């Protein structure tokens, strides 16, 4: 079991920046990767950025060069630094923890935080 609590989000003008934080607790040793997903109204949830326990990262093409995912293993926290925000980045952002237990993937999710970018 993993619990995820998100912080950050809010309203920002286009071109601005926000930082999201996700504090994890629970079975930390089982976490293979953590990431951020987002879901805009009427759209499917999509991967924004992901970081593995070995610190390998991958990003959605739409955020490459603007967003940076990082992790602090002492604080058990993952961050998403979002720069040069665009109105199309508006969505609910969800923190995700990916666990592999007995060759079975389990996903845990935060409650979601709203990011709104005004034009």
Structure description:
- The structure is a single chain.
- This protein has strands at residues 2-7, 10-13, 18-26, 31-39, 46-52, 57-59, 67-72, 77-82, 91-101, 104-109, 113-118.
- A hairpin with a 2-residue loop joins strand 9 (91-101) and strand 10.
- The chain is mainly beta and 119 residues long.
- The radius of gyration is 14 Å and the shape is globular.
Put the structure in a nutshell:
The chain is an all-beta fold and 119 residues long.
Can you lay out the helices and strands and say which pair or pack?
Layout: E1 2-7, E2 10-13, E3 18-26, E4 31-39, E5 46-52, E6 57-59, E7 67-72, E8 77-82, E9 91-101, E10 104-109, E11 113-118
Parallel strand pairs: 2-11
Antiparallel strand pairs: 1-3, 3-8, 4-5, 4-9, 5-6, 7-8, 9-10, 9-11
Question: Which key phrases capture this entry?
Answer:
single chain, mainly beta, four-stranded antiparallel beta sheet, globular, 119 residues, seven-stranded mixed beta sheet, 11 strands
